[in-house]
Each structure stands twice: as C-alpha cells, then as structure tokens.
Amino acid sequence: MAKRKTPEKETGAQTGDTALVTKIDVTDDLLRRLERDIRRNVFKVLTPYTLAQAYNIRISTARKALRIAAQKGLLTLYSGGRTPVYIKAQPESTQKKK
Q: Which residues lie across from 13 on neighbouring strands?
C-alpha cells in the first residue's frame, strides 16, 4: 500500500508572520500617470488589456482606473460590453451642443 502523504503545516499566513496583499487598488500615482499619458496622446484607444500591458498592472485594476478616468471626464466610453473601449474625451468647445 502506498503511504498517504500528510499535508505540511503552512507557516506565515496562519501564524501572522507574513501578510500577502491580494487586493490591488488604484493608486493616485497610477491615475496621475494615466492622466499625463492621455493628455500627451500616448494612446489612440484604451482597453483594460492595453492599459495593463503599458503599466504592468492587473486587468481588474486597469478596468477600475479607466472607469475613474471616464468619471473625471478624461475619457469617453466608445464601446461597452465585455471589453470596454475608451477614447480621449473631446473638449467642450468642439462637442455638438443639443
């Protein structure tokens, strides 16, 4: 009969010696970098994937950053859905008035 392996005790996480941060939130530094690059026209269109690749962040964090930038008026949602596509927001003077 094969011996059954007993699970080894995990150290650190259970004892509280080390804590892993699993939730990464959008930082002010990331938003400043994004705003600077939008104003410099670095990106033609932005998707969570392109932002994640450019800034080396997770796609979920990129989604949050894009939503925040759209709420601030820096970006406009061009196409929603599973993969949202954002474009640079047009200045107020060039938009058509209703």
A: none
How far apart (Å, rounded) are the C-alpha atoms in residues 41 and 39? 5
Instruction: Output the six-digit token pair for 40.
Output: 């410099």
Mean pLDDT per 10-residue run, the chain (98 residues)? 58 54 74 91 90 92 92 90 89 61
Q: How far apart are CA 96 and CA 33, in angstroms?
A: 29
* Domain locations along the chain: 28-89
Closest residue by Cα to residue 62 from 22, 21, 29, 31: 31
Distances (CA, A) of 25 to 4, 13, 61, 75: 42, 21, 6, 20
Query: Taking a C-beta distance cutoff of 8 angstroms, is the pair 53, 43 a contact?
Result: no
Q: How far apart are CA 6 and CA 75, in angstroms?
A: 54
In terms of CATH architecture, what is 28-89? Orthogonal Bundle (1.10)
